[in-house]
Amino acid sequence: MRWAVVNERIEDLKEFSNYNLQNHNTFGMKVKAKRYVEYGSEEELQALIPTLSGEVLHIGGGSNLLFKGDFEGTVLHSAIGGIEVAEEVADEDEVLVRVGAGVVWDDFVAWAVEKGLGGVENLSLIPGEVGASAVQNIGAYGVEAKDVIVMVEAVDLASGEKRVFANSECQYAYRQSIFKKELKGRYAITYVTYRLHKTPQLKLEYGNLRAVLEQDLPHGENRPALGLVRQAIIDIRNAKLPDPKVQGNAGSFFMNPVVSREKFLSIQKDYPQMPFYEVANGVKIPAGWMIEQCGWKGKSLGRAGVHDKQALVLVNLGGATSEEIIRLCDTICQEVKKKFDIDIHPEVNLV
Ligand code: EPU
After folding, report:
1. Distance between Cα 142 and ligand 1 center (Å)
2. Which of 312, 315, 344 most suits a substitution to test ligand 1, by most atoms within 8 Å of the C-beta?
């Protein structure tokens, strides 16, 4: 495949010892990394590998992490930039875009929307970087990264070898991938290739998205443009989710549990108003709703709080320690278990 580079790469190796990670985790924890290295290319990463010893943690934007304390090993961060567009594709309507792992996710979404390329607009404003989109299978408003990922390029942190994973090899599921399971910590993702479309197939069925959009549609038009969808998603997110620059948080703290149909029906008898989504292996129940039912929305324990507009999000009310956040997390898990007999689990990585 030949690629046309459409914006610049940044190539700049940076290395620090006893490095403050406060600006690299959106919870705003004041923790240090014994060694911190930011690399700007695959070659720089490969050259670094023989120097790695002890524990290694590869971070992205730090928007899905809770540090329990200082990190005594090496923290790696990719600054591989660049957006490239494939020069030949089989289908006229498709555009294959290869994006550096260090590109800020929403910068890529903004780029795609501006070029009129559909596929990622529902994932507007998700914090984090392109590499993490492929690890975490980020998702929102009815779209997941796996729906648009074609392939993932990675470097083996043990041998330095490059490997290309086709989408089908990534074992994608809800907030899950091979990079979080058997290959956890083994590979650093360097590039992700996405399939976008010149004729966007809009997905507007999630929640109140269509209703919000209909209000914004210019008179006489019934089909929203990509820019309007992006704006509606940004407005919905801004109304519900706290800005980490103002109040430390890592987005949804918990995953939404999937329960069997029988279990769902038995809970529904007591809570007929419970929201739910049918999924392949059962029924998904929004953890945020259960946490709200337990009375935790807008409440706090020490300096750790539950966001008042979305109970799935735990917030640092100012100077919270990770112990305080974890205590709140554990308390909520126990109460949800007691009330609904359902186990909920953190989505955020505890390090
Ligand atoms: N709900 C409540 N109370 C709450 C929160 C939610 O009753 O405090 C109810 C809502 O009324 C709605 C349902 O739960 O009926 C679902 O709520 P919402 O649409 O806000 O989505 P969510 O399931 O809570 C998930 C993702 C979000 C993503 C939204 C939209 C996970 C773990 N979270 O949240 O992703 O933005 O859907 O697609 O799947 C993230 O991963 O960090 C994240 C923000």
Report:
1. 11
2. 312
**Whole-angstrom Cα distance, residue 290 to residue 286?**
7
- Around 330, how many Cα atoms within 13 Å sit in the side-chain half-sphere? 7
Does the pTM surpass 0.90? The reply is yes
Q: Ligand 1 in contact with 256 (CB < 6 A)?
A: yes
Q: Is 39 in the pocket of ligand 1 (CB under 6 A)?
A: no
- Cβ–ligand 1 distance for 347 under 6 Å, the answer yes
Which residues belong to the active site? Answer: 175, 252, 347
Residues 181-216 pLDDT 10s: 999 999 999 999 999 999 999 999 998 898 888 877
- The pLDDT tens digits of the residues spanning 2-12 come to 766 665 544 56
Domains, the chain? 14-78 (3.30.43.10), 83-197 (3.30.465.10), 249-350 (3.90.78.10)
Predicted confidence (pLDDT) at residue 227 exceeds the cutoff of 90: yes
Spatial CB neighbours of 86, under 8 Å, sequence gap ≥ 6: 1, 2, 3, 4, 95, 96, 97, 98, 193
| pLDDT tens digits, 18-61 | 999 999 999 999 999 999 999 999 999 999 999 998 999 999 99
CA distance 326 to 304: 9
